[in-house]
Specification:
The chain has 433 residues and is mostly helical. 72% of the residues lie in helices and 1% in strands. It has 21 helices and two strands. Strands 1-2 form a two-stranded antiparallel sheet. A hairpin with a 4-residue loop joins β1 (416-418) and β2.
Length: 433
């Protein structure tokens, strides 16, 4: 660990309490909960510096990060040493792996930090994203959080988000980008707060388009479709159009957006064929390399779009097929989240159903899940699903949290009364949540 690493990590840890107070201090979260979140955030940053030890425990490795750095870092150093800033900026603005590796190379070269600082920055950014998501979810609740509320702890410190965002991978920055894009839905109390939210939305959209443009576009379209029906959206429309001139070219490089607009039917057919080809490549690679035990098939047939993707997203790995500790932990987490969502939604009353389907966050979560289900239909690798599913977690956490907060509201209003041995539902007249 270099002196630069010590300065970076210390600065990040000192920023955690400030960030928690800014995001949660004014929204009714009691001091005890905020203190736990502060210590949790500082511990997250500190433990991320020793992420390799966790890899050793559960049997994983940052192989992609090491491989790509060894391939491209020497070339990027030559650009910086020779003052070839044109090619350096060109690599920095290339979506995907080139952007992430170039971003790291610039920090390494000009600041003297090592990968330890990169891990700390990743953990801090994901923690920031979790705070943003928590504040957004609670802003759609009319009640202040109770004193012993553990829900924000789960939203912020979701195990998969903590693990994958503490690695030398794109997941942390992508998670932050998604949460900032999603935060544009937040009803700001002042015009200044609304402008700040929009600024972070623009930054998140641009960063996400450089990391994984084919995934950030799902969240962008979802947020803008819901947001356009809200008041005062028109004043940001011009800025969004100008921003799209920066974002769309990045998405087009990876997603072929121009072809989709000109020839939508042919593009959909081409995408389906390409996705099926990649699916077959996954399966063939697994047959050639038996050590890849996390690849699965659909019984020799082709995947059913969306249906198989929903199963993969919500229930892979299957608990009765786990082969090691990491599969068991991943399976327990996603099964717990999915079964809790199903239970919470199945027990809702008629008044709760009417209210929750009018909630903008729920509309957005449902809208976003559909393309993710399509995306995961052609991903027959449980390890890859576990990692990429982090980008879908904000939608799942919304669908888990909103029913809980809504039930609390109706109980406090007397519209739902619970008893010790039996439950009676009483629907009264009044304003719904």
């Amino acid at each position: 660990m270099s002196i630069s690493d010590i300065i970076v990590i210390t600065t990040i840890i000192l920023l955690v309490p400030k960030l928690v107070e800014k995001y949660l201090g004014r929204y009714g979260f009691v001091r005890e909960v905020r203190m736990v979140i502060m210590f949790g955030g500082m511990l997250w940053v500190a433990l991320s510096c020793g992420h390799e030890s966790m890899h050793w425990v559960i049997g994983t490795a940052d192989s992609d990060a090491v491989k790509f750095e060894s391939w491209w870092y020497p070339m990027l150093v030559k650009y910086m040493e020779s003052g070839n800033h044109k090619d350096l900026v060109g690599k920095l603005l290339t979506p995907g792996r080139f952007f992430y590796v170039t971003y790291q190379a610039i920090l390494y070269y000009y600041t003297g930090i090592t990968v330890i600082s990169i891990l700390g920055i990743n953990a801090f950014m994901a923690f920031w994203g979790g705070l943003t998501l928590t504040r957004l979810i609670y802003s759609f609740s009319a009640l202040q959080p109770p004193r012993r509320d553990v829900l924000p702890l789960f939203i912020i410190f979701t195990p998969s988000v903590v693990f994958w965002s503490s690695a030398n991978l794109k997941e942390a920055l992508m998670y932050w980008s998604i949460c900032q894009v999603l935060n544009f839905m937040m009803p700001a109390r002042t015009s200044n707060g609304e402008n700040i939210n929009f600024g972070l939305f623009a930054l998140g959209a641009f960063l996400g388009s450089l990391l994984r443009p084919h995934l950030i576009i799902i969240w962008l379209f979802g947020v803008l479709i819901i947001k356009m029906f809200q008041p005062r959206f028109w004043k940001y429309l011009i800025v969004i159009i100008l921003l799209s001139l920066l974002v769309i070219p990045q998405i087009d490089k990876r997603f072929g957006l121009g072809k989709l607009v000109k020839h939508p039917i042919a593009s959909v057919v081409a995408y389906k064929e390409s996705a099926e080809w990649k699916y077959r490549q996954f399966v063939m690679r697994a047959k050639m390399r038996p050590s890849i035990g996390s690849t699965f098939t659909y019984g020799g047939g082709r995947p059913i779009p969306i249906l198989h993707g929903a199963i993969n997203s919500l229930f892979r790995p299957f608990l009765w097929q786990v082969r090691n500790l990491r599969s068991m932990l991943t399976g327990l987490e996603i099964w717990t989240i999915s079964l809790c969502i199903m239970f919470l939604w199945m027990r809702m009353t008629a008044i709760e159903w009417r209210s929750i389907l009018r909630n903008p966050l729920i509309k957005l979560a449902i809208l976003v899940c559909i393309p993710f289900f399509l995306f995961f239909s052609y991903t027959p690798n449980e390890g890859w699903i576990a990692r990429q599913r982090v980008q879908m977690f904000p939608a799942l956490l919304i669908m888990l949290s909103i029913p809980v907060l809504q039930r609390r509201y109706y109980i406090s209003m007397g519209k739902i009364k619970t008893h010790r041995f039996r439950k009676t539902i009483h629907i009264t007249q009044g304003q719904t949540c």
